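User: Please fill in residues for this 269-position structure.
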């Protein structure tokens, strides 16, 4: 019975796409996960990965930001870098010439990343704040991030994502015209909408188990992003469900699937 319910909801999502005329749209927007790093000369969360995402025309480049001990913002996914805990290390510690990314770059500062992004002014900057739920840390990181966006004139290009619900709420409060997407995966779209959050960005497994949330999000006029989608079958399932954005490590492969995808047989969930 549960499987039948899911199938009916998936069919409903497809019907809604047709009703809205999305069957003739170019497909979901492609977000390069940590930039386009699975290519020569690149590395995760590097300046090169940002520029390579721009070169291939990605809708957005996703990147992760941490705050250092001396309150500087750096682009890195983990809370540690090359054995150093970022929150306990200064920018000078992290920018030691012996500590380099896989492509030879130093860890980028947020300022360096934003300055480089000016080369591709149409590309969105999908900004993930890394947070452990420390209110003081979040307040400082959010304030300094927004100051940096305004300093480089990119505030209209930024889309915010975070596993921290409080950070999402604060970004939504301070930047009400920007897209804010929660990453946690446990909250229904309608709950988030009541908190002022206008998007969901959940792992594909969440949407496979709760396809009705795609429909609910669209009914709430919310954006649906899905991460991190690299497998061909999962790409097709997310296309069928009507995701608005696909975050991926293989952006060119996703574009190829979007360009050639046709709704034929219903995939098994």
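Assistant: Residues filled in for all 269 positions:
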């Amino acid at each position: 019975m549960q499987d039948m319910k899911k199938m009916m909801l998936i069919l409903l999502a497809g019907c809604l796409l047709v009703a809205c005329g999305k069957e003739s749209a170019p497909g979901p927007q492609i977000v390069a996960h940590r930039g386009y790093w699975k290519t020569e000369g690149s590395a995760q969360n590097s300046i090169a990965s940002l520029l390579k995402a721009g070169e291939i025309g990605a809708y957005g480049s996703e990147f992760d930001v941490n705050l250092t001990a001396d309150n500087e913002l750096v682009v890195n996914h983990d809370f540690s870098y090359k054995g150093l805990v970022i929150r306990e290390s200064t920018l000078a510690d992290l920018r030691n010439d012996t500590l380099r990314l896989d492509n030879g770059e130093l860890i980028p500062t947020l300022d360096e990343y934003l300055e480089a992004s000016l080369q591709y002014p149409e590309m969105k900057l999908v900004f993930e704040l890394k947070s452990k739920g420390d209110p003081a840390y979040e307040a400082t990181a959010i304030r300094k991030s927004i100051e940096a966006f305004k300093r480089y004139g990119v505030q209209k290009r930024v889309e915010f994502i975070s596993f921290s619900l409080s950070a999402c709420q604060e970004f939504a409060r301070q930047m009400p015209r920007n897209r804010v997407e929660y990453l946690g995966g446990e909250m229904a779209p309608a709950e988030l909408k009541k908190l002022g959050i206008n998007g969901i960005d959940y792992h594909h497994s969440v949407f496979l188990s709760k396809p009705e949330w795609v429909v609910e999000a669209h009914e709430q006029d919310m954006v649906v992003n899905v991460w991190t989608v690299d497998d061909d079958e999962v790409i097709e399932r997310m296309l069928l469900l009507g995701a608005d954005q696909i975050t991926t490590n293989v952006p060119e492969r996703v574009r190829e699937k979007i360009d050639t995808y046709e709704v034929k047989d219903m995939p098994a969930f």
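For context: Residues 126 and 196 are 18 Å apart (CA to CA).
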